[in-house]
Sequence to fold (253 residues):
Amino acid sequence: MSLLDSLFVYHPDPWQDRDWARASGLPLEDVWFPAADGTTLFGWYVESSETPAVLLWCHGNAGNIINRLDNLRELYRLGLSVFLFDYRGYGRSEGRPSEEGLYQDGIGAYEYVTHARRVRPDRLILFGRSLGAAVAGEVAARKPAAGLILESCFPSIEALAKFHYLGLPVHWLLGAKFRLIDRLPHISLPLLVVHGDRDELVPLQLGRQVFEAAREPKAFYVVRGADHNNVPFVGGPAYFARLKAFIQSVLRR
Fold:
């Protein structure tokens, strides 16, 4: 990981010790599991018996899984089982973040869910938000699943850097590429792309580029008034209903 990558790409928060299950009101199960390269990672598994669907959640580049508890609560209320994990160097997970490392983490999380939890791929929904969309896309290109949800996503670090730096080749200074756009031709899963129309960090047009490059079947859902970090909460019940409808549709295939 280069110094510039640590400054511009990865923003992990240290862990805070607390009884998070009690604080959140969720049945959080602590999970230690190996990434594909053996790095020890930490996550939470929340199991629901309401639906057969399991969501494998690849989060964005900042904070750690603690910061996703409010969102996790709403997904659990939908009747979903969820595996939310931290990448290497985030939260309690060991190691230091890197692009290849995050891909190894995503594959390790997939292997944990499908082997240790014995979740069939046709019940598994891959969910990636922001930088995590590239991680989920890597998993989707390599492993079978029922469907893929990409939220607040971008085609590549290059596309994002060009937008923010007026076309200057700032991305040349970064080691991380995260070229989701290259994975899309290899992904045949049903796809839902979700984006806020007031996203100033990853503008709507970049989310549309991802959608346009993807294969069918696919759908694009715009959350009016949402920026990069509040899509679920601005979207509210309609947002969660759209996710549920997509998940139900892919489980019936």
Remarks:
- The chain has a mean pLDDT of 93.
- The first strand starts at residue 11 and ends at 12.
- The two ends are 41 Å apart (CA to CA).
- The beta strands are 11-12, 29-34, 40-46, 54-58, 62-63, 81-85, 124-129, 147-151, 191-196, 218-223.
